[in-house]
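ok here's Nitrate/nitrite sensing protein domain-containing protein, seq below lol
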Amino acid sequence: MLLLATLIFAVIYYLKQEDDTIGYEFNNLVQLRRILQLSIKHRNVTHAALTRGCIEAHKNELAQIQVQLRELSESNIANLPLGERPIHRIFQAKLEGMHNGWQHRQTNRNHVIHGQTIRQCMYLIDETTQALIAKTDNSELGDRYHQKWQRVFDSMEALTELRLCVLDVQSNKGMPRVKRCCDKTSRKLEQLATMVPKALSTPYTSAVIDKLAQIASCDDLNVGEQELYDLTTDISFVIIQGYDQILYDVTNQLCRPIPRMWLV
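and the structure came out like this:
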């Protein structure tokens, strides 16, 4: 009995020491990823409602998602040091803005607003991850993470450029720009997939990259706004899946792996 009690005490002590080492950053990371997941779901549901003309059918579901986002954001802010709260308050306001008035938006405007919010959430996740790594003084891991994050960042920037030119797809002057953006995004996704093969060596990723390359190289391809918007959603999925694998690997090396995030 004495041996068992000693073992239990040792395990509890170890877990406490681990929690003291990783601090609030780990919990912050977990909650931000959940906020990211819900923001993606909010984008997908609003997009479906706006494009299919079934706004009333989705109002309650979206209101529930927003309640969850608000509760998670408040909980997260409450656990942060005072100095870090202002930037998260700004992000909280962006989450509210993402939801407010969604039913009155044009589809392209809805995509832009959700894209900005999701991107800011990923920036906050990056800052939290860097802080978590810094507490361990693991410079080698920090360098590897930075290299991979740069690929994620480059992919997000390419996606933003593509989203901004979707409305020009039907014009003679706009199509060359769309083709250039598709080519750039395809190359950035290929580079990201090379960095994170465990998550992105999939038929889904290959199909997205192939579609981008097809649009970039074909002169007589007839592609519309809706098809491009759907493609940008697929690109976002690939980027976030890759980044989530990076976060999983980092936290697995530092303390304990974060729960897997399922995108819906």
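fwiw The chain has two domains: 8-135, 137-254. kinda neat tbh
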